[in-house]
Structure prediction request, 268 residues.
Amino acid sequence: MQEDDINFQQEQVHDILFSREIGWQDIIYDLINTEQLDPWNINLIILTDKYLEKIENIEETDFFVSSKVLLAAALLLRIKSEVLLNKYIKSIDEILFGKKEEKKHVLERIELDEEIPELIPKSPMPRFRKVTLKELIESLNKAIITENRRIKKTIINKNALRESSISLPKRKYSIKDKINEIYKALYTHLNEEEIEKIMFSEFVKGEKEERIASFSSLLHLENQNKIWLHQPDHFGEIHIWLKHVYLKNNPDPLAELKNKEELIEKNK
Prediction:
């Protein structure tokens, strides 16, 4: 390795370690100076190629390249491809953000009695328009800000969807049929075993989906006043009763509330 190359790499390392973080604007300004590019008429093809070379040099020294620097490289490549395909450039903003839709006007047909003269365009075909450094920096900065907002919005929406989503088993049965099935099985089991109640864990077997479906049916049955679900302890076992059996063997749990309502009605 030549001495000049060693000194160049040492200067790069020194600049990265002891100066502020290098941004995409810094790279472009540096290239304008080192490549002696005209800031009032930038050769975008040369600038893009040198920009990519600069990034490769930074990566080869195992230093971190920010996402904005890489995004600016992608935007420059888009502009370069437009220039190479069309040989001219109308507007950088048009390349980066798309062409704005113009209002369509209704054309009226005009009939002439005389022969229509041949129309010769006075202006030449579009040529490569001059691009200034200020215009390039402003357009790239606007595009980077827009893209960062889009990415941030996408991430927020995905996080919100993931946090709010609940994975429930797909229903492959009729709720009405399931409720009738559970009630019939419960009624038959309690009568055949001649017992007053049964534990949920004993009555409901099977996979997770089956237990969820059965518990949902039991809640519907309780709402229909056919059964009574009793859980003596928090997070403890659930006791399943036929409602008339539970009320026969236990005091009415709503009696106290009913008495308070009656007192309130009397005192009105």
In short: The domain at 175-251 is CATH 1.10.10.580 (Arc Repressor Mutant, subunit A). Residues 98 and 104 are 18 Å apart (CA to CA). The chain has two domains: 8-98+128-159, 175-251.
